[in-house]
UniProtKB/TrEMBL annotation:
Residues 170-312 form the XdhC Rossmann domain. It comes from Comamonas faecalis. This is XdhC family protein. Gene3D superfamilies: NAD(P)-binding Rossmann-like Domain. Pfam families: XdhC_C, XdhC_CoxI. Residues 15-66 form the XdhC- CoxI domain. Signal peptide: none annotated.
Length: 346
């Protein structure tokens, strides 16, 4: 599943390429509580079709009515320079549009965005390129600029700059069933996903669209990707020949999350191998997570993938999880002898 922004932009690009009138709506400022964060986008077609959202629904309904009813007193134009629109200025208006606790938000409305520029943006995003989209407020002219790092939306008297693309990357080692579930969730959460597996019987059956598949050895793939502080590396093969060197390669990078699936026993064996045969110490392995995931009693590949994705997001967002959500701690408390019958279970 695609990142929501890319889905919105792709639909908008298709509409405009077909010659249909369309509106691109961007949340540019918020005051108080807001249903959607700054930078959120929505595409609205001339016949009322909508992709994306900027609120809980009432603002979308108002925009649809104003855009699809040209004879209304407060109708929106179908062309011209971008315009700002404010919702929730008063308490009555906030209540009318379903904004929480007196929230107010300001939107930028772009009428009939240029089809060629949209197609170019979608192509860049399909290639995994983080991209700044500059909108000149005087006339709506758009320029695109490759970005080296994610950035917050900015708006001045002359232009709006919004950044699109995968701000975070995930490398999954192993192309098995659980990897497909994890890759799907990671894409939905805005990650650009690469899966690495040199085993033909696995990579040939990979079925998740939008994921880059590498058939190189995992440690070579890690080196080629050069993980940064916005990259996570997750090993899911249970095969030391594939996992261990790749994990060690990742530990030499600033990747924000590095971990491997498995039981407490498997995790201890991994540390023992790395210290006895690969010159590692407990200090050098301190960033290596395992068993990965949070404890939710998961017993199936999709449930385990959910637990892993939850932990990745918690680390990404700087959230310290309580100890009673750690797999090893909970299993120690329960007196279980390693997952044996549940060697994957977070």
């Amino acid at each position: 599943m695609e990142n929501l922004d890319i889905t919105v932009l792709r639909a908008l690009a298709d509409w405009r390429a077909a010659g249909q009138s369309a509106l691109l709506v961007t949340v540019v400022r918020t005051w108080g509580s807001s249903p959607r964060p700054i930078g959120s986008i929505m595409a609205l077609r001339g016949d009322g079709a909508v992709m994306g959202s900027v609120s809980g629904g009432c603002i979308e309904d108002d925009l649809i009515a104003r855009y699809t009813q040209p004879d209304a007193d407060d109708a929106l134009p179908r062309s011209g320079a971008p315009q700002f629109a404010m919702y929730g200025v008063t308490a009555d208006e906030a209540h009318r549009f379903g904004l929480p606790c007196g929230g107010t938000l300001e939107l930028l409305l772009e009428f009939d965005p240029d089809a060629a520029a949209l197609a170019q943006l979608v192509q860049a995003l399909d290639g995994g390129q983080l991209t700044h989209r500059h909108v000149r407020l005087a006339d709506g002219q758009v320029t695109l600029q490759a970005a080296g790092a994610p950035a917050e939306l900015t708006v001045s008297d002359t232009e709006l700059v919004n950044t699109f693309g995968p701000a975070y990357r995930m490398l999954i080692i192993g192309a098995g069933q659980m990897s497909e579930y994890l890759a799907t969730m990671a894409q939905f959460c805005g990650f650009a996903v690469t899966v690495c597996d040199p085993r033909e019987e696995y990579y040939k059956s990979w079925s998740v669209a939008g994921v880059r598949v590498s058939t190189d050895m995992p440690d070579d793939t890690v080196a080629a990707m050069a993980p940064d502080a916005r990259t996570c590396v997750v090993a899911l093969t249970h095969d030391p020949k594939l996992d261990d060197l790749a994990l060690l390669q990742a530990l030499e990078t600033p990747a924000f999350y590095i971990g491997a699936i498995g039981s407490r026993r498997n995790n201890a064996a991994r540390h023992e191998r790395m210290t006895e045969h690969l010159g590692q110490t407990e200090e050098s392995l301190a960033r290596l997570r395992g068993p990965i995931g949070i404890y939710i009693g998961s017993k199936t590949p999709p449930e385990i993938a959910v637990s892993v994705m939850a932990e990745v997001l918690a680390v990404k967002n700087g959230v310290t999880l309580p100890r009673d959500m750690e797999v090893a701690y909970v299993k120690d408390q329960q007196g279980l002898a390693g997952p044996g019958s549940s060697c994957l279970l977070p």
